């Protein structure tokens, strides 16, 4: 537990920290029941909400660490304020003792009797008056300083408690959204598996597009990922060498078109499960396999970074991932290594 002595000067910065923690992203989190095409949109919204909640939680945690560092730097100032109050108390005691020794506590009648002359009496009264005024000023200053310190400590304590409560709330919100997202992901995958088994795709599910972060003409097909099986690698899963680059991502991750183009194939079934093929200028094609849903129709024009579907684990897949290929024809068997192909276009994996 932190000592309240480390809090008073943190009130302004803690209020700024609380301002960082914005409204809770709960619109999609409160409604994820039901299957059908709506589950794709719900997963997409939950995916965004989970990212927002994570960023808010991390921002709050990092801001709290910043405030703790500032508290260390301000500790000397706090000690200085307390020392000033202690000096005031010492001054009060010294003035009181001086008054006592000089007769400051003597009644006015006794002072009149003991005075040798009227002039001495006037001088004595003037000294006592000034001493009394000094005592009153010192007492008032000490009380005001003590009151400010107590108020600052109370406000800082309340601000710390509010910040800690908000961080606990954000952590709980993040956990709740992630749990609902995981449940919705597997409902989406179940729906996709049923479509593949029936050999009939569910059709395009239009996703509310986020603002594109695409800075150029070409982008990575997923924003956050881990690279898994690479082009040309071998294994029991493939009859021949691996024909693309795999991106390990959770079910429901938004999949983006790597560049401008036209959707030339949307299919459901076979080794790649639900898949898309896009034709790009220059005679190249990109393929996106093992999807859980598609967000575009065949013949549709797409732009760099546009969401075209959601990742999954349909077809010949051992776990959730995106299989990405670059081809010189729309057909399987004409693929090139997508990593250097993207690198030539300014996209580093």
Q: State the shape.
A: elongated
**What is the gyration radius calculated from CA atoms?**
36 Å
Q: Which range best describes the helical content: under 10%, 10-25%, 25-40%, 40-55%, 55-70% or over 70%?
A: 40-55%
Strand content: 5-15%
End-to-end C-alpha gap: 45 Å
- Biggest β-sheet, characterized? 10 strands, antiparallel
Q: How many strands appear in the DSSP assignment?
A: 10
Unreliably modeled segments: 1-34
Order of helices and strands, N to C? HHHHEEEEEEEEEEH
- Structural class, by secondary structure, is alpha+beta
Helical element count?
5
Average pLDDT level: 76
Keywords:
alpha+beta, single chain, disordered N terminus, 10 strands, 10-stranded antiparallel sheet, elongated, 48% helix
């Amino acid at each position: 537990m932190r000592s309240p002595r480390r809090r008073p000067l943190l009130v302004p910065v803690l209020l700024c920290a609380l301002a960082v923690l914005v409204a809770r992203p709960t619109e999609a989190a409160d409604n994820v029941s039901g299957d059908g095409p709506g589950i794709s949109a719900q997963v997409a919204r939950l995916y965004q909400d989970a990212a927002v909640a994570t960023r808010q939680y991390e921002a709050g945690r990092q801001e709290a660490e910043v405030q703790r560092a500032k508290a260390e730097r301000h500790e000397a100032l706090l000690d200085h304020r307390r020392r000033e109050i202690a000096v005031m108390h010492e001054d009060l005691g010294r003035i009181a003792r001086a008054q006592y020794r000089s007769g400051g506590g003597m009644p006015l009648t006794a002072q009149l009797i003991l005075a040798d002359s009227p002039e001495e009496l006037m001088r004595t009264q003037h000294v006592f008056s000034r001493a009394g005024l000094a005592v009153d000023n010192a007492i008032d200053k000490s009380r005001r300083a003590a009151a400010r310190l107590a108020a600052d400590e109370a406000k800082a304590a309340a601000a710390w408690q509010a910040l800690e409560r908000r961080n606990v709330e954000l952590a709980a919100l993040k956990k709740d959204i992630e749990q609902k997202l995981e449940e919705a992901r597997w409902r989406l995958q179940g729906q996709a598996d049923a479509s593949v088994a029936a050999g009939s795709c569910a059709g395009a599910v239009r996703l509310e597009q986020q603002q594109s972060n695409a800075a150029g003409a070409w982008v990575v097909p997923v924003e956050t990922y881990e690279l898994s099986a690479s082009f040309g690698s071998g294994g029991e899963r493939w009859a021949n060498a691996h024909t693309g680059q795999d991106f390990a991502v959770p079910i429901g991750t938004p999949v983006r078109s790597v560049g401008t183009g036209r959707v030339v194939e949307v299919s459901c079934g076979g080794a790649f499960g639900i898949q898309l093929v896009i034709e790009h200028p220059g005679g190249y094609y990109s393929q996106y396999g093992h999807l859980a849903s598609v967000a575009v129709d065949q013949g549709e024009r797409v732009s760099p970074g546009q969401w075209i579907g959601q990742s999954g684990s349909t077809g010949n897949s051992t776990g959730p991932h995106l299989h990405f290929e670059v081809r010189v024809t729309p057909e399987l068997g004409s693929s090139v290594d997508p990593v250097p192909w993207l690198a030539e276009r300014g996209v580093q994996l």
